Give the backbone structure.
Amino acid sequence: MNGVVVSVLTQKKLEIEPSAIDRLLESTALDMAKVNELILARADSHVEMVPEPGSLSNR
């Protein structure tokens, strides 16, 4: 018995739908980039460092 095997998967294009988290990340990417810029800009501001433990007892 001779036959022909045809794969259905090669005949049909498979479209993978993005996951919910991928859609969420894509929809918020621009706003998150703006938030990151704001954080980095404020990180450059001068803030006095917290003294090392034990350095206060020597005063």
